[in-house]
Amino acid sequence: MNDLLLISLLTGLAGVLLGLLIASRRGPAADAPYALADMRMFRQVDKMILSNLSFEYVAQQIVDLIPAAHRILGVTLRTADERTGQLDVAAVSSNLNAPGDALGLHALVGSAIEPTAAQRSGSRTVQAVNQRQVEAGDSLSAFEAPTIKAATAGKIQAHLGIKAIVSYPVMVESQVVGALTFYFDRSTDSLSEHDHEIMQGITDEVGIAIENSRLTSQLEGINRQLAEANSHLKEVDALKDDFIAIASHQLRSPLTAIKGYLSMLNEGDFGKLQREQAAILGQLSHSTNEVINLINDMLSVSRINAQKFELAKTAIDLEELVHDVFLELGPLAQKKSLAFTLEAPAHPLGQLNLDPLRIRQVVINLIDNAIKYTDQGSVKVRLEQADGQIRFTVTDTGIGIPVDEHDQMFKKFYRASNARTVVVSGSGLGLYVAREIVEKHRGSMILESAQGKGSTVGFSIPFATAAVETTSATHKVAA
Ligand code: ADP
Asked: Does the model's pTM come out above 0.70?
């Protein structure tokens, strides 16, 4: 005997054995023709449960699938309200509730049974729920009271040919979540163990469908709440940005005036100062500048958030701008006895098309940081043109930035772990704003640093994008 023949014989034998096994589990031979249809029905019910469709739709589809498969006339599905215990009719098999058919079960659709004791005790379906047990009988009225009156129930039962009614409580874990009432055109005595297995199987599946729908609606509820909270937060955030923008604007004007007068006093415009007076005025100027810089950063952040951060480019002399800031911050470096130097480009850069206020903000932030985070050694400011880029860098011998934190440095409010202990005050906004400004100029930030090894922080902007459209600028690109 060749292998193929042996395999097909064994397969045939296995099929026969399986058939016998199924038949023995099913009980009476009369049930046999329904096995395949039952399995098909279960598969379709499973598919419906797994779909993402609404519970109402899924419930109706399921109650319509059931009579198509088995010798069941139809079913009614009720769901129990989690809070009130009220039983609502969620779906009735369409073949039993045809609209216009005065003797159908359509009266049940959309109806509810209040959880009052009187009403509950009147219905065997409700009894099935309360007692958590299967109720079987032959009077439709006994199951559908009080929704359908006894006289009408009798007529409907005769019209639809209902001979047996069975109500199953639908359970999820140990909780009753509804009831499934089956209608048969045969007597209760004819209901086999197999019929009950099928009814229990369907009831279990319906339980899963109800649970799924509850979880989905809970999830939808949570999503809705999250969306509301999110939109509220956005509103509050926008209000906060508006507030910061207005407050900063109001603060900036008087501070600029104070800064102006302080500088005149410092320069002796109102008479020669004594050493102590000059020192105090120097300190005052420094503090005023710090507040102005912080306000500028805060204003920039609120504009960035509101997507209103625009550049006002004009032809400027970047060397001069850097030189001015270098002179302005000189006293700070001096106070810490740092070697403070400025290295100008080998060839003049000429006029460049940049936003002077914003670039000044970046230059101040970077030099100020270098001085702030360096206690001894040097701070070297360098402006150069190399490889088609304008490079501005500040190199210091300060605390440095841990390499594993480099990725975070340009995030809003981020301050490196070592900086937080050395300099307590600090907003963590300077580098964030600097990057926004530089990237708006189509440039990129430079960061080379390691903890305890000093830092080089700066930016580069392609010369071609910053060049002013003149013959001399074109000449410089070529050079
Ligand atoms: P702030 O200095 O106000 O904290 P910045 O945004 O200007 O905010 O800088 C962010 C962080 O980057 C600082 O807190 C510090 O950790 C680090 N940092 C910036 N420049 C330097 C530097 N030159 N040396 C060491 N750390 C620096």
From this structure: no
